[in-house]
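Progress report, Aim 2. The chain analyzed during this reporting quarter is listed below.
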Amino acid sequence: MGGLTIATFEQQQPSGRARASFINAVTAEVTRLGNVHEAPWTAFTPVLVAAPTAPTLGTGATVTGRYRQAGSILHAEIHIVFGSSGVNAGSGSYVLLLPRPVAAGVRAVGSLFLSRSGGGTVQAGVCRVSAGQLELIAATARVTHAVPWAWAAGDTIAATIAYQPA
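Predicted structure tokens for the chain:
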């Protein structure tokens, strides 16, 4: 075959110090990738806002959030349950503040789950990064103080999103 030599995989491996260096580099990269995949969750307190009037979640409201970054992507989960008394839906379109600022030009879409107290009425929707905030979109329109319903005690908003932070 005119001087062509085919080497086996074993023959192509480095030896001596080069081999040790190669093994250390591969081990470090595998560890780094494992750490990215298993990044720990960090708790944060989500903020639900609306303009012109922010909602009051009421006494006993549950507001939880967590996020973790895997490589250049941040994954966030938000869960809000309106309290048992003192709830005021505010007025205007609802948005959620994100745990970290969004990188310039980033567009991202996530999932949204809405439910009425008692679980009798639920609605799926989407959330999207818009102007550095998380815009909430129900099945037919943006989520507001009155869409998809007038928010009251025990109602739930849950969202998940993955985006590139600044």
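Residues 42-163 form one domain. The mean pLDDT is 86. These observations will guide the mutagenesis work planned for the next reporting period.
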